[in-house]
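Pilot study result, target chain (492 residues):
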Amino acid sequence: MPRILLTLLVLSASCASAAPASILTLLYNTDDLTFLQNESSEAASSTTSRLSQDQAQTIAADLKASLASDNPRDPIYLAKQLANVGMLQTYAGDLTAGDQSLRAALSHFNQNQSLFDPRLPRLLSAIGINGFLREDYDTAEDHFRWSQNIQHRSHGLFAAEQTPNLNWLTRVYLSTDQTDAADIAQRYVLSIAEQVLPAGSPALSEIKIGIAAYLGQRANTISLFAEDLDRLLRQTLFTDSVDLLDQAILEITAAEGPYSVKLIDALETKARVYSWRGRSNRLKEQALTQILTVIQNQPVVKAESLRDAWLALADGYILTGNEKAVAAYRSAWLAINPAPASDEVASVMAKGTPSIESTTQSLPAQATILTDPVLLWPDAYEPIYFGSDIEPDPETPTIAYAVELGFTISTKGRVKRIKVLRENVPNREVRWTRTNALNSRYRPALRNGVPEEVDFALRQEFLPRPAKTLTQPAPADADPVDPSPADRSADG
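Predicted structure:
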């Protein structure tokens, strides 16, 4: 199989995350752009890294001026040159001029060739990218689908060349709330990969990880309190995501062993998916433990990577109420600040923490400032709609509704000793804010990796519900610690 097919699949597998710079991969190979040849993704990536937007704008202007003076006789060659001008203008941020140049190129193509000329997909995809950037999603969808259709006809049902268009279509569908169509597009990318790539190959495993991340993110957008069919879809997406990750982990382990660094991406994705799914903190903890094991078994262990792995695991312990969190936080600090054994260190490490072999020179332990607590659950205290008992007065300034709490965060990351500092909302919103704070989990404040209690504050903002609006769904990342959606409390 040509290497370009592998590259297209690998680069395009994950949730259509291409930036505008990806339009440079579509440039036609004309004589006046030999220095920007893009016959492989590696060359395109190199081009993108060294070409600034100002340079692209200058090159586009030069090419446009040369077209006016040279007037090539070959209409297809002229179309390619116009297309390159439009792509460079789009990359440079001049979307209107880019769209005009690209459409002029398409007009020249259509006058001389069929609508399914195999040379058209690059131009059609470029028009789609330009349309997407201009938020003209109808134009973007039409041209991405047209481009994909030609690739389908030219190369077959499972042609790898389709995957960039499928990923751009995914972006279009998500931007226009066509979530079912986005899911279908990403599952088609997976089907193509399974048809084109050898079973168990590293490239296929990488694509499975990317699709799994997409499915997990999609599931996370569906509320636990949605309608029955949507909740069923949420569960299906999470299940498929975890299944793909398990497949990738088994494939990588079989090919490269249980301590391959390629496992880290799959395990990190798995931990995120479990976090999004809720009621899976123990499984998340297992994935984080495995990441730490992989890092510890590398020939050369980077101190920063070891620290981050210990921190992630310690945060996971906080969410599950595991007493090992204290030792894990200390281990994270020691990964960067190795010190001779002492009674204090020994007492911490005696709680079952695996030994650490530092890869850096031994440094004396230094007293550090106390770090700030970090909110672990929920992800953030987002503003919440509530049924205000106050009639809005258009002649008065907008009122900022909020509850401000003061409390202590314990060494276990829990909230205690809550006090209401300020509030201007009904009592039920105050009660909900207190409950939400009690159910929150924090990374505790740390000094030399040792948790300490600190005083902290929370401001929960509320928004009066607009007239004639539907009930706002609960956050999709709701956790079993607090099963009540915000609006349920607001509505009684």
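One observation from the pilot: The CA atoms of residues 28 and 111 lie 19 Å apart. A full batch analysis is planned for the follow-on phase.
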